[in-house]
Amino acid sequence: LNACKNAIHYVKTAIAQSLVGIGNGNGPINHFHPLRWSPYQGKTFIQAVKESLPTGLWSDFIDHPFVRGIADGTLPTESFTYYLKQDYLYLQHYARAAALAAYKSDTMNTVGANASIVLHITKESQLHLEYCARWGITKEDVLSTPESVFNSAYSRYVLDKGQSGDLLDLKISMAPCLLGYGEIGLKLFNDPATKKDGNPYWDWICQYAADDFQEAVHVGMQELEVLAETYVSTSEARFRDVCKTFEQATRLEVMFWEMGLRLC
């Protein structure tokens, strides 16, 4: 099994590192890519970054008491509704970050892709307001809610990384949100211990387990692998810096859950 996994990874990496724009068809395969040293040799970039996290930090995020409360339906309603309001405010900053990614992109394709993300978030924010309404939260309630200091810390960290760094700095600071919610959604959806009947949060779980969100996770992971080839390449120091950004963003995700529990 490991041999098959290694072989698949070898071919995928070979294709990714092949020369582009030569002829037609599937293109050449770079069979010499194992000879090119990488700070995450033998692993995908995402796998290596996640493994660089301090022990238990990722679990602190995806298995947080807030998440467990969603899974068994015991999360206090006031915690969830406060989280929903703050999440809408965060979405506005997330859209700004995606717009910044479009500005930092160096090809028309990537500019367009990130612009499409902004439009998608705009639609998602409207759906979010409709979801809030089902919980008795009006748009006025959301917009009049003061932004939590935890929310401000997280969103400004992402925007600062994007403004002061390159496209990978920005995207890796946004990655824990995308990857974590995708993992949480699938995990809770497929876990027999998750309460389905009578769980007021079951539809929230389904949103993040849905095919469209999981596809967004897949596309985001592919983009990060490509960006790492450009912006990390063979630099171990650069890889360590990127890992630190991912770690800090993960810690801020944990604090976002804490914000919901503490109502602060």
Automatic annotation (TrEMBL):
GO biological-process terms attached to the record: thiamine metabolic process
One Pfam family this sequence matches: TENA_THI-4
Alphabetized InterPro entries for the sequence: Haem_Oase-like_multi-hlx, Thiaminase-2/PQQC, Thiaminase_II, Thiamine_Salvage_TenA
SUPFAM superfamilies per record: Heme oxygenase-like
Thiaminase-2/PQQC domain segment(s): 57-262
Recorded GO CC terms: cytosol
Alphabetical list of NCBIfam families matching this protein: salvage_TenA
Database matches in PANTHER family: BIFUNCTIONAL TH2 PROTEIN (PTHR43198), SI:CH1073-67J19.1-RELATED (PTHR43198:SF2)
Protein name listed in UniProt: Thiaminase-2/PQQC domain-containing protein
Native species: Rhizopus stolonifer (Rhizopus nigricans)
